[in-house]
Structures are given as structure tokens and as C-alpha cells.
């Protein structure tokens, strides 16, 4: 991958990059289109497909994470992707004697709350693998989804702090018709859970509505939202947070421009969503 990327660099070919864990859906493909628009017809669009083990906790869904490379390859072809980079674990994280992997990239501020609190080693895995992928693909621009708001903020910070010569673009969340944010993990949902999974986007809409009526206290709104989510018998609220979109610090007064994020369990399946209120 890196040899190919260096050749492109020598020939001044523009490179747009979309990192994914595969099991592609329309949300991923919207990032691919965005990358293509930026680098143009003569540029190269690279999609990585790699279920990165270091961003999964010991009790999480690494082994059952959905995979279908043949389908992903077909979708990438149809979307005009130039190269799929799909490394295997032993290439990314060598484990043999004398060659084990021991260097990680750790963002220490934005990673603390929300997903970082719920999944303690998650962002260390994300920043490490994205740093590695940037060094392998050497992109001019990399496109991430707003669906993973905190992740995008952390990648931006990493790029700034460590001077990666990569422009970060964040594209809007692609949703199903009923509002559910597209996610590879939606496949885990039973029919009943799928029906109730709209509670995430409905909670965001509810919060927007109360903000339109005027600023509200964070404590009160959070309590209302928790009640709203818990009203769905299949849903268990992991967290709901109201925060400043730049600092990711919780706010006490919620108004226009406040960011809201939530995580909800349906059985073992954990879904996230967020929006600007
Ligand atoms: P994943 O394969 O889940 O690691 O996601 C790969 C990239 O696609 C990340 O930048 C995600 O934020 C982005 N993404 C995932 N779901 C969506 C969605 N529904 N809309 C837009 N981008 C998404």
C-alpha cells in the first residue's frame, strides 16, 4: 500500500481516503462520494476495510462483528473506489517473538468522556490504527462520518497535535427512512429491537424541540431524555450527554449549537447517535 501511495505522490496524484471496518452501507458510500468530489476523476480514492482489534474491549463484539468482503468489494467497485486496502492482523500488529507491537497513539483530553468513558481503550485503538493507515495510504484528505462525532474530533486533534499532513473532512450522518443512523451494527437487531431503535433519533428530535422553545437546563433535559429512551422496553440507556461541540465539555445550559450524543443498548447491541441542537 505504501509503495503504491509513494508512486502516486511522485506523480502528483491526489489521494482521498475513507477508513472503514467494512460491512459497507450507504453511509460509508456517501463518504466515498465526498472523497471523489474532492480529489476529482484523476485522483485516487482508497477505502480501507479492517476490523481493528485494538479498538474493541475484551467483552465487546470483535469476533462477531459482521464481515462480507465479497459484498464490500462489489459496492466499492460500483462506487468507483480505486483501491481497497484490507490488511490482516499480523500485518498491522505483528506478534512474533522480537517483533511484537508496542507503540500506541493516545489522545488524552477529548477521549475522556462519553465513548471513552464507556469503552476505556477504544480511542487508543482508533488513533493508533488511523495513524498507521495515514502512514500507509499517505492521503491528502481523509473523510470521516459525523455519526462518530467524538471520534472525528479526536482524529482532528491527533492530526493537529502530531502534524499529520492530512486534511480531515467530516461528512453528515446517513440515515434510514425512519431516522435510524446507518451502522454495520444495525444488522444485530431483532425485528422488535429494530423497531424501537428509532428512539435514538427521536430523542435527538425531542431535544431539538425543547431547545427551539428556549434554553433549558442540562440536568432537566437529560432526565427527560432518559425517561423517553427507557420507555422503550428493549432499550437501555448507556449515556446521554449535552456538550460543547469543540471542547466536548458538558454544558449546564442547553441552547442552539449545543451538541447532544447518546448511546443505547438493545440487548448486547450498542448504538450511538448525535446531533447539533
Ligand atoms: P465504521 O466502519 O463503522 O468504522 O465507519 C467507518 C466510517 O464511516 C467512520 O468515519 C464513520 O463515522 C462513518 N460512518 C458510519 N456510519 C455512518 C453513517 N450512517 N453516515 C455517515 N458516515 C458513517
What does this structure look like?
The chain has helices spanning 2-10, 26-39, 69-78, 89-92, 114-118, 122-137, 149-161, 191-196, 199-212, 218-230, and strands at 15-20, 44-49, 83-85, 141-145, 167-171, 216-217, 235-243, 253-254, 259-266, 269-276. It has 277 residues and is of the alpha/beta class. It folds into 2 domains: 2-171, HUPs (Rossmann fold), CATH 3.40.50; 185-276, Pantoate--beta-alanine Ligase, Chain: A,domain 2 (2-Layer Sandwich). The strands form 3 sheets. It has a 5-stranded parallel sheet with strand order 3-2-1-4-5, sandwiched between helices. Strands 7-9-10 form a 3-stranded antiparallel sheet. Helix 6 (122-137) packs across helix 7 (149-161) and helix 9 packs antiparallel against helix 10. The longest helix has 16 residues, at 122-137. The protein is globular. The model has no long low-confidence stretch (mean pLDDT 96). It binds adenosine monophosphate (AMP). Residues 20-21, 27-28, 30-31, 144-145, 147-148, 171, 173-174, 181-184 line the site of adenosine monophosphate.
Amino acid at each position: 500500500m505504501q509503495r503504491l501511495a509513494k508512486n502516486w505522490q511522485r506523480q502528483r496524484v491526489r489521494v482521498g481516503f475513507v477508513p472503514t471496518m467494512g460491512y459497507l452501507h450507504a453511509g460509508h458510500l456517501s463518504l466515498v462520494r465526498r472523497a471523489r468530489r474532492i480529489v476529482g476523476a484523476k485522483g485516487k480514492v482508497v477505502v480501507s476495510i479492517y476490523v481493528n482489534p485494538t479498538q474493541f474491549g475484551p467483552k465487546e463484539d470483535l469476533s462477531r462483528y459482521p464481515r462480507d468482503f465479497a459484498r464490500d468489494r462489489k459496492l466499492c467497485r460500483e462506487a468507483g473506489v480505486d483501491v481497497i486496502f484490507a490488511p490482516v492482523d499480523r500485518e498491522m500488529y505483528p506478534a512474533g517473538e522480537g517483533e511484537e507491537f508496542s507503540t500506541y497513539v493516545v489522545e488524552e483530553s477529548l477521549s475522556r468522556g462519553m465513548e471513552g468513558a464507556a469503552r476505556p481503550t477504544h480511542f487508543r485503538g482508533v488513533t493508533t490504527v488511523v495513524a498507521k493507515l495515514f502512514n500507509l495510504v499517505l492521503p491528502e484528505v481523509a473523510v470521516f462520518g459525523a455519526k462518530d462525532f467524538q471520534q472525528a474530533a479526536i482524529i482532528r486533534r491527533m492530526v493537529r497535535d502530531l502534524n499529520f499532513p492530512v486534511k480531515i473532512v467530516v461528512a453528515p450522518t446517513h440515515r434510514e427512512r425512519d431516522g435510524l443512523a446507518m451502522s454495520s451494527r444495525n444488522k444485530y437487531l431483532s425485528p422488535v429491537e429494530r423497531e424501537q431503535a428509532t428512539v435514538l433519533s427521536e430523542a435527538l428530535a425531542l431535544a431539538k424541540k425543547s431547545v427551539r422553545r428556549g434554553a433549558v437546563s442540562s440536568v432537566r433535559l437529560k432526565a427527560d431524555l432518559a425517561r423517553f429512551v427507557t420507555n422503550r422496553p428493549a432499550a437501555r440507556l448507556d449515556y446521554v450527554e449535552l456538550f460543547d461541540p469543540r471542547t466536548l465539555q458538558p454544558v449546564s445550559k442547553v441552547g442552539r449549537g449545543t451538541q447532544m450524543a447518546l448511546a443505547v443498548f438493545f440487548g448486547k447491541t450498542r448504538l450511538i447517535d448525535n446531533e447539533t441542537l
